[in-house]
Fold this sequence. Notes:
By secondary structure, the chain is of the alpha/beta class. The protein is built from eleven helices and 15 strands. The chain has helices at residues 51-65, 89-103, 120-123, 134-143, 176-181, 219-226, 246-256, 266-293, 313-319, 339-347, 349-358; strands at 2-5, 17-22, 26-32, 38-44, 73-78, 108-111, 117-119, 149-154, 159-165, 168-170, 185-186, 201-204, 207-210, 302-306, 323-326. The strands form three sheets. The protein has a seven-stranded mixed sheet, sandwiched between helices. The chain is globular, with a radius of gyration of 20 Å.
Amino acid sequence: MKTTLDHTSVAHALLPVIGWDVGGAHLKAVRIDAVGKLAVMQVYCPLWRGLDALSAAIDQVLTEFSVSAMGHAHCVTMTGELADIFPNRAAGVRQIAGLLSEKLAEPMLFYAGYQHWLSLPEVASQTHRIASMNWLASIEYLASHVGHALFIDIGSTTTDLALICNGEPKVMGFSDATRMQTNELIYTGVVRTPLMALAQKIAFQGQSINLAAEHFATTADVYSLTGDLPMSEYSAETADGADKGLEACARRLARMIGRDADDAPLADWQALAQAFKRLQLQQLQLAIEQHLAALTDNTQCVLIGAGVGDFLLAGLAKQLNMAYSSVNDFMPLAQQASGSAQRLAAVCFPAYAVASLGRGHA
Length: 362
């Protein structure tokens, strides 16, 4: 998907920048040209199938942007080093950076944490500073725009949570391992998460039923049936390789409780989807409450939502008596865009952040 939007308030000339967020399942890219014109794109990129998938995705982005890799500054962040084609994360960072060096052009900078950038020759010796830092690019960008916030980015696979206090990041972990320990990184998302990861039992037709520990269905099926996820954002393959229509989503959900879709009307499968939604909301609420408990005064703390799953957050904020803002409220280059363009910019926020932060360094 691609959206282009305009902003004319940037008066001085700058080298066009492309921010790249290389994930394990998607490649996200944001281009900001010399006068602030913004283009945003997300490409499904199953990196676990090999680096050829990433190579093809980069070509697709450049083609859709109608630009050459030359004449741009390229600012990169990544989480794709976790893909199981790599023997470890360090090798993943090096191999991804190597491919980018072949596909793109200098100047190229790699985001290496708060206020730090690395050039391509520095990557090999400092992979630990680059691996899975896209969330921190988001926080660094937001911290210059808001004083007190809990930022939550619900993606297709994972959810990032991070506090901002007095205009500074207030986080406990910087690696995936420590962030998972502190509920700053939760492996739950609204597209690719297997439903067996949400619970072992679920209510259906007034009974508690064990869930199959099989990859029969994903959260994209749930949110398609609840009406929260449009077809355009079901941006991954289905669990069974079949289509993404409501009947197919119901069929996959039914398998999770040992049934067939024709055992009950569609309304019952939609009710089951709502039950799965409640389970995921409970998981998120517990994490949010843990972070708010660390604050001495959370009355000024606004919940800022981003990602493809941000539709879950406004209701959670209301339930927790918190003010809520979309990350779009803090993206001046996107504020003049159409609703669909703003939506995609919020989904690709780490790429927007790394492009914006990198403009002053490239």
